[in-house]
Amino acid sequence: MNRSYRLLIPIILILILAIFIDLPKSPGIHIGSYNRDFSTHLGLDLVGGLQALLEADVPPTTSVDPKDMAVAEKIVENRVNALGVSEPVVQQAGSKRIVIELPGETDPEKALAVIKQTGLLEFVDMTSLTNQEAFALVHTKINTDWVPGVSQPTQSITSTVTTPASTPELTITPSATATSTITSTIPAVLGPTFHTIMTGADLKNVGVQTTQGGGYVVAFELNSEGSQIFKDFTSAHVGQILGITLDKEVISAPSVNTPITGGKGVIEGKFTADEANTLALQLKYGSLPIPLKVITSESVGPTLGQDSLNKSLVAGVIGLTVVVLFMALYYRLPGIVADLALLCYATITFALFRLIPVTLTLPGIAGFILSVGVAVDANVLIFERLKEELRAGKSLSHAIDLGWKNAWPSIRDSNFSTLITCGILFWFGNTFGASIVKGFSLTLAIGVLVSMFTAIVVTRTFLHVVLDRINFTRHASWFGL
Question: What Å distances lie between residue 342 and 274, 319, 324, 337, 454, CA to CA?
Answer without folding.
Answer: 52, 12, 8, 9, 8
